[in-house]
TrEMBL record, chain A:
Family: Belongs to the PMEI family.
Name of this protein: Pectinesterase inhibitor domain-containing protein
Alphabetical list of InterPro entries matching this protein: C/VIF1, Invertase/methylesterase_inhib, PCW_Enzyme_Inhibitor, Pectinesterase_inhib_dom
Residue stretches making up the Pectinesterase inhibitor domain: 25-168
Swiss-Prot/TrEMBL keywords: Disulfide bond, Signal
Native organism: Deinandra increscens subsp. villosa
From TrEMBL, chain B:
Similarity comment text for this entry: Belongs to the glycosyl hydrolase 32 family.
Keywords from the UniProt entry: Glycoprotein, Glycosidase, Hydrolase, Membrane, Transmembrane, Transmembrane helix, Vacuole, Zymogen
Subcellular location: Vacuole lumen
Matching SUPFAM superfamilies: Arabinanase/levansucrase/invertase (SSF75005), Concanavalin A-like lectins/glucanases (SSF49899)
E.C. no: 3.2.1.26
Pfam families, per database record: Glyco_hydro_32C (PF08244), Glyco_hydro_32N (PF00251), INV_N (PF11837)
Organism per entry: Deinandra increscens subsp. villosa
Domain Beta-fructofuranosidase N-terminal: 17-105
Protein name: beta-fructofuranosidase
InterPro entries tied to this protein: Beta-fructofuranosidase_N (IPR021792), ConA-like_dom_sf (IPR013320), Fructan_Metab_Enzymes (IPR050551), Glyco_hydro_32 (IPR001362), Glyco_hydro_32_AS (IPR018053), Glyco_hydro_32_C (IPR013189), Glyco_hydro_32_N (IPR013148), Glyco_hydro_beta-prop_sf (IPR023296)
């Protein structure tokens, strides 16, 4: 094959153009989707972090979002376990938070995934809404007991991510 | 023990713990009740509290400390920060939160509402009366108290109140329902045969309709089911997304003698209801026209379509049509999680339905219920000739709590549906009369006069399982005299106006249930009457969860709507209290509100009931009957 033949060059250019165009279209789609969420920058960060987002429809983007909630949830559970050792006085509240994040990771996330795949987006929305509430409840429970929360950042991230994903899911309704 | 007649009650040393409100004394109102030894002491308390608290006509009253009552109802309220559906309002100054104790969680299970022993339930399916038994199937997730791969749970009853749980009726054992045996309906054919159409989510997550029938039609318990080997009988038609095609209805007869069903869907944001005709439930013909469509309403889930009698007091078989009949179209709106209905006219030849009032069309007008109420479905009970409504009532606590307690969701109490003959523009819903058989140990109060800004504790043996029926009358004089009015008051909105603590001249007044003494936790159900500049009254009926619990991880919304009140009618409400569910009905069922309530303190022996009038001007006269409700077999 002559690499420098005009036909080859043309084909290659066309392929590159197609890929570039479709990537740009996908990027636009992701951007537009994120504009409809409470935290567009956070949304972009989550979605673009996953290479699969380039070929995703709305359901796929939502699933990427749910995976981000799961990752953050697992990370936060690890944080709670470590805090129980380093801050034993906070144990009752940390136990409450552990249950909250356990619910996120082991109930809300699988339920939301199943719902998204099956086309019953409302159950996925409920799962993400609950995830946000669990993080708020965890954060508040420190305050209610008179403690300064050691988990404010994590709780805020979970709340924000869950609300972003919830907004994406609402677009499917 | 002392008998329960008023003349014996002279003991001035009240043994009751609540602080009475200052007020004059007058004649005690008559109270009658079924004498009960163990309850006599409560009667003593009741009379003493009433004597303290109730001020009567024209008596020289000590200045009512109206501010005190108002403060009691509003102590510790936080500022309302724009509430999204599931963000809960924090209670400033609330007591320390705690993890939910098993004591608190155990209390939440109901005494007489249908619920499986554990895990997750949602939509009611295929309700039917067959060979002497009421059947209820339901969306069930057996593995966790959260939605998941769904099967058909099953239970039977002789009376819609006491239930016998049966094995799972249908599992996800075919490719065409591998991802879920979703919602469906039953049809009884004229020869007595029973068929079920239900939505299956296939192995590829396509929504299809499947036919199933009893394995043994002579088994009244309908334990085993057969899925038609030729399933699916319906797949999404062209132009309909494969994930927007679900919840087939009960079938009804067409003028040509065929069977007709409708299935909700959407095209872009227009909610629609597709119509199919069939002769054998195996092959179907899609009609060109939809039954009805309403732009902007989104996906229509759990569509229901049924006739109601214009004049009669009975329900109607789904196939009935004719001049004395109107038809209801109902749909569950996916977008806002509420069930809407509209009354209109069905054209059987065209397979089309038109609303009587397009401004009150499906999805934009009336709701069955202004609280938590979704995926509802009716059936015609041919035994008692009534149309009965079932609905899924979800939890409004956190998933973490549901996991701790091991279950999630209830069915609402089944309700009969009739056209409201007085208004003609809405239906009335009322708990099935079999529920009344659970009533026991009545406490009756007649003509209690409740001044503006007062609170009346009602002493009861217990307060977690109650049936309360109450009538209220506003004092005419104040209503007539009131001229400092603006149309702002008639623009009252239960959800947005701050609940029972927000005082108007003529309201709020009502009953607060699951109340802790001192009202640290309580759930008021009330009327708010507003007078417009035209002199007309507008009445609102609300249920206020904003102070229902000290816990900060439960929903604290306020629900409600306007309720039509005809000339000469007293204001009436019925409240079923059953642990973590409160169902409230106004004006015989014109406006209904279902609430989920999760108190931490107002539970077991600490739950109480108060009568209240938080209006600034009007006096209210109230008569109530309160029954203890026995537990059913659920």
């Amino acid at each position: 094959m002559k690499y420098s033949s005009p036909l080859t060059i043309l084909t290659t250019l066309l392929l590159l153009h197609e890929t570039l165009y479709s990537t740009m279209a996908d990027q636009k789609f992701i951007e537009n989707t994120c504009k409809g969420t409470p935290s567009p920058n956070l949304c972009l960060k989550i979605l673009l972090a996953n290479p699969k987002s380039q070929n995703s429809d709305l359901t796929d983007l939502a699933l990427i979002g749910v995976a981000a909630v799961e990752d953050k949830g697992l990370e936060t559970i690890r944080q709670i376990v470590a805090l129980k050792r380093s801050r034993p006085k906070l144990k009752p509240t940390l136990n409450y938070c552990e249950k909250a994040y356990h619910a996120v990771v082991y109930a809300d996330v699988p339920s939301s995934n199943e719902a998204l795949r099956g086309g019953l987006a409302k159950f996925a929305e409920d799962g993400m809404a609950d995830s946000a509430v669990e993080s708020q409840a965890c954060e508040r429970s420190f305050r209610e007991h008179g403690w300064v929360s050691p988990m404010t950042d994590s709780n805020k991230v979970m709340n924000d991510v869950a609300n972003v994903v919830r907004a994406i899911i609402r677009m499917l309704l | 023990m002392a008998s329960s007649s008023p003349s014996d009650l002279e003991n001035p040393h009240a043994t009751c713990s609540y602080a009475p409100l200052p007020g004059g004394t007058g004649d005690e109102p008559t109270v009658s009740r079924h004498p009960k030894k163990s309850a006599a002491i409560f009667l003593v308390c009741a009379f003493l509290s009433l004597a303290f608290v109730v001020a009567l006509i024209g008596v020289d009253k000590a200045e009512l400390n109206t501010n005190e009552a108002a403060v009691v109802l509003s102590r510790g309220r936080g500022v309302d920060k724009g509430v999204s559906e599931k963000s809960f309002r924090p209670l400033l100054g609330a007591e320390n939160s705690y993890p939910w104790s098993s004591n608190m969680l155990d209390w939440q299970r109901t005494g007489f509402h249908f619920q499986p022993k554990n895990n997750w339930m949602n939509d009611p399916n295929g309700p039917v009366f067959y060979k002497g038994w009421y059947h209820l199937f339901y969306q069930y997730h057996p593995d966790a108290p959260v939605w998941g791969k769904i099967v058909w749970g099953h239970a039977v009853s002789k009376d819609l109140v006491n239930w016998r749980h049966l094995p799972i009726a249908m599992e996800t054992d075919q490719w065409y329902d591998e991802q879920g045996v979703w919602t469906g309906s039953a049809t009884i054919l004229p020869d007595g045969q029973l068929v079920v159409l239900y939505t299956g989510s296939t192995n590829e997550s396509v929504q299809v309709q499947n036919l199933a029938y009893p394995a043994d039609p002579s088994d009244p318990l309908l334990i085993n089911w057969v899925k038609y080997p030729g399933n699916p009988v319906l797949v999404p038609p062209p132009g309909i997304d494969e994930k927007d095609f679900r919840d087939p209805t009960t079938a009804w007869k067409t003028p040509e003698g065929k069977w007709r069903i409708t299935i909700g869907s959407k095209v872009n944001k227009t909610g629609i209801s597709l119509v199919y005709d069939t002769e054998d439930f195996k092959s179907f013909e899609l009609l060109d026209q939809v039954l009805h469509a309403v732009p902007g309403t989104g996906m229509w889930e759990c569509v229901d379509f049924y006739p109601i009698s214009k004049q009669g007091e009975n329900g109607l078989d789904t196939s009935i049509d004719g001049p004395g009949v109107k038809h209801v179209v109902k749909a569950s709106m996916d977008d806002d999680r509420n069930d809407y209905y509209s009354i209109g006219t069905y054209d059987a030849l065209k397979g089309k339905w038109t609303p009587d009032n397009p401004a009150s069309d499906v999805g934009i007008g009336l709701r069955y219920d202004y609280g938590i109420y979704y995926a509802s479905k009716t059936f015609y009970d041919q035994d008692k000739q009534r149309r009965v409504l079932w609905s899924w009532i979800k939890e409004t606590d956190t998933e973490a709590s549901d996991i701790s307690k091991g279950w999630a969701s209830l069915m609402g109490v089944p309700r009969t549906i009739l056209l409201d003959k007085k208004t003609q523009t809405n239906i009335i819903q009322w708990p099935v009369e079999e529920i009344n058989r659970l009533r026991t140990n009545a406490t009756v109060f007649k003509n209690l006069v409740v001044e503006a800004g007062s609170l009346v504790p009602l002493e009861l043996p217990a307060a977690s399982q109650l049936d309360i029926v109450a009538e209220f009358e506003l004092d005419e004089a104040t209503v007539m005299r009131l001229n400092d009015v603006s149309d702002a008051d008639v623009a009252y909105d239960c959800a947005k106006n701050g609940g029972a603590a927000t005082r108007g001249a003529l309201g709020p007044f009502g009953i607060t249930v699951l109340a802790h003494e001192g009202l640290i936790e309580h759930t008021p159900v009330y009327f708010y009457v507003a007078k417009g500049v035209d002199g007309n009254l507008k009445t609102f009926f609300c249920a206020d969860q904003s102070r229902s619990s000290s816990a900060m991880d439960v929903d604290k919304s306020i629900y409600g709507n306007v309720v039509p009140v005809m000339k000469g009618e007293k204001l009436s409400m019925r409240i079923l209290v059953d642990h973590s569910i409160v169902e409230s009905f106004a004006q015989g069922g014109r406006t209904c509100i279902t609430s989920r309530v999760y108190p931490t303190k107002a539970i077991y022996n600490n739950a109480q009931v108060f009568l209240f009038n938080n209006a600034t001007a009007a006096t209210v006269t109230a008569s109530l009957s309160i029954w203890q409700m026995k537990s059913a077999q659920i």
